Amino acid sequence: MATYTLDINNAEHTVEVAEGTSLLWVIREHLGLTGTKYGCGIAQCGSCTIHIDGSPTRACIMRVDNLKEGQKITTIEGLSENGDHPLQLAWIEAQAPQCGYCQSGQIMQATALLEGNSSPSRDEIKTYMNGNLCRCGTYMRIVKAIELASEEQIATR
Amino acid sequence: MNTTTPSIDRRQFLKTTSGVALFIGVSGMLPLAISCKNEKEIQLQLEKHPLTAWVQISEDGQITIYNPAAEMGQGSMTSLPVLFAEEMDADWSKVKVAFSPQDVAIYGTEGWRPGTRILMSAGSRVTKSYFEVMRNAGAQARYVLLASAAKHWQVPIAELGTDQGFVINTQNDEKIGYGELIPYLEMPETLPDFTPEQLKQPKDFRLIGRDIPRTEIPTKVDGSAQFAGDVRLPDMIYGVLERGNLHGAKPTLTNESEILAIEGVLKLVPFDYAIGIIASSLEQALAAKKLLKIDWSDAEATGFNSEEIFDEYEKIAAENKKGRIITEIGNVQQALRSAARTYTVDFKNDYVCHAQMEPLNSVVQLTEDLKNAEVWAGSQQGGDGKLGVPEALGIPPENVKINLQYLGGGFGRRSMTDFVVECVTLAKEMAPRPVKLIWTREDDLTYGAYRPLSLQRLTASTDRQGNITSLSHCVVADNGNLATSGIRNAYYDIPNQFAESRGISRGIRLKHWRAVGHGPNKFAIEALLDDIALDQGTDPVELRRKLMVKSPRALATLEKAVEMANWDTPSVAGRAKGVAFLERSGTLGTGICEISVNRDTGKIKVHHFWSAIDAGVIVQPDNVRAQMEGGILMGMSSVLKERITMVDGRIQQSNYHDYQLLRFEDIPETIETEMIASTEHPQGVGESGTPLVACAIANAFLKLTGKRLRHLPFTPNRVLAVLNN
Fold this sequence. Notes:
The complex is a heterodimer. Helices cover about 35% and strands about 15% of the residues of chain A. By secondary structure, chain A is α+β, with helices and mostly antiparallel strands. Chain A folds into two domains: about 1-80, Ubiquitin-like (UB roll) (Roll); about 85-155, Orthogonal Bundle (DNA polymerase, domain 1). Chain A has a five-stranded mixed β-sheet with strand order 2-1-5-3-4, sandwiched between helices. The longest helix of chain A has 17 residues, at about 140-155. Chain A starts with a strand and ends with a helix. In chain B, about 55% of the residues are buried. In chain B, the strands form eight sheets. Chain B has a seven-stranded mixed β-sheet. Chain B is of the alpha+beta class. The termini of chain B are far apart. Chain B has three domains: about 20-220, 2-Layer Sandwich (Aldehyde Oxidoreductase, domain 4), CATH 3.30.365; about 235-300 and about 355-445, Aldehyde oxidase/xanthine dehydrogenase, molybdopterin binding domain (Aldehyde Oxidoreductase, domain 4); about 320-350 and about 450-725, Aldehyde oxidase/xanthine dehydrogenase, molybdopterin binding domain (Aldehyde Oxidoreductase, domain 4), CATH 3.30.365. Helix content of chain B is about 25%, strand content about 25%. Residues about 1-20, about 25-35 and about 50 of chain B have low confidence and may be disordered. The interface between A and B is large, with 59 and 62 residues.
């Protein structure tokens, strides 16, 4: 057992867990931030996508002891105060989710895409998002939501 | 209808400053207004009067409507309350939705079988089976409000109307909000039953048929939507099971003391088919699971090699004795004897798995005396809605409280209750502590319950004019029952038909998988039709026009799809279109896809998919479109990529690296859906897209290459083998 202090969504959290514990279990079961989901545990589905210093990361294969001092973690809960990040609003406008289970990870991945490339082409979107699975088949609407948010971003500049 | 006067004083309703619960009877039961804060009083009243509680109104006009069905992404959390709110004439902007209690006597539907109430979210029947239930309940709620306003204003009820949350006096335009009416609420002596004519007419619909943003989507984009695996309770501990990869095999644990010595492990729980571990944390449970040393017995599936089994299935199809007869129309033998041409074709499909994004899980807490249970689960319900828990514990259903959660995908998997009953078994050992059971993705895939592997042998005959005079369809499958849906051809004018199923047990766990038997059976039927069309030099659409001569609704979907896809204009070089028609869950649909094939890799690319459906009255158009899109993508995934295989009975796949699903890179450029306008009763749409895919793709492939795909999935290897043959 060891103690770890994590900066998650700009708040400090301290946990006592065994070395090697998956960051996903720390976030979900120990800290109760359950918006990040478990889908496969082997980084094949993207449901557990969070940001570490703004970079999308699969929390499932990240050991809590591999985090470096000062790294900032963002989960879906920390993306916005009121669920009103432009991507979240676009997601609602496109009525993208069905069961919703993969959507936190999809949104976190998409956020990183738009932060790096404000007007991605359809092909660029598909390539960037390809690591995120959706069994319900909402891919078409996710692409639409990202395009909407990107247009909105450009329009409000 | 019950017309006896209640024994309590009608003025005697309790209210608090935070509002009143308006419990509205569905079948003419006398309703009561009860404080929604006073749970004890509610319970007392519910015992005295079998009531149904569909809506709560508070004084500020906020309305909570109950959804009796499961929400697995198919939209019940919106479409059912929309039906209620439409008839209640509620202000939708003030509506919130909550899951109803899992109480079948109150919230069940007879839509599956008249005379029997069940709670069940499966078979694409939620909207269909609750359409009248919700509308009647909403109309009765409106009636109570009108009657109360009439009494309050001392005017005849006939002079009153409603308008989106207000009762209006049509004589003087005075109005009062539903919430403001609460102090004056009075229960009428009797509640009318509403005939269909007395309910709103389609021309007056404000909500039904309009796109209403789904009520729970905001919580699905901000991470707050709760699934069963998200539940956290004080003193909660974790359970996992090791079930192995041979279904039904019995475990002998050989290192029990080593496991019990692991930090955090609290208990080992034996099952017939698994070893259960209970631990303080999830990571401790999972770590211990990896260290289990188990000797597994043989099981029924021992020796079963799924890749080699089709020879045996072909032999069974060739046997003279018939299996279970499903269709027998006219005289197929005679038609075959007098035929100008006959066709016999075999079709095959491998097992597929649900692979829903949320691996199975549940949370169960028992009282120390084991006499009461509380359950949190994302379930498709079933029967009395108590998920097998009363039987597992030997306690009455009323002692079991089910807290229904959102499902991270259902597709038929979550109407099985194994993942709940397992958790009950664990929770029994640790009562009163709540136990959270997690299935890993490996558990979920390897110990899944699959769509059966099957062989279809079809024989058709045509006369000298090219008319199809008979169709004979034999399906050989692991569990005959699961493999027979879709075998009927009610919309094709084929005068002689025979269909049967021959069951064979392999000891593999099986289940309904989205569209059940329709995927494989419609693949067979629709691909055979295109075979015949090619042989005759007929256009496949023209062939179907002839077959649909007595089915105008089917024909309408065909013509619409043909128009959408520009069927009569040939595709550009290297692409081709394929068509398929089927009926599923009462919805008629024609699908057309356009594909290309990479002849070096064997990869099929779907460029476009068009579908036209007749699903009766459409309650939520955009949601229907979403279900068709999602169903078609799931269809593509299973048709092009997915297979579960067994070697010596052992399941060979375990996670998304070896059971691959369709990804963003493989989506079509467009998926378009049109809904034929209809006043017929709403039908089911959730499973209407998926089964169109195999046949549409196979038929497009035939057009493009002249070659035939017969074995699902159409993996690149299989495509190459067919191309190079």
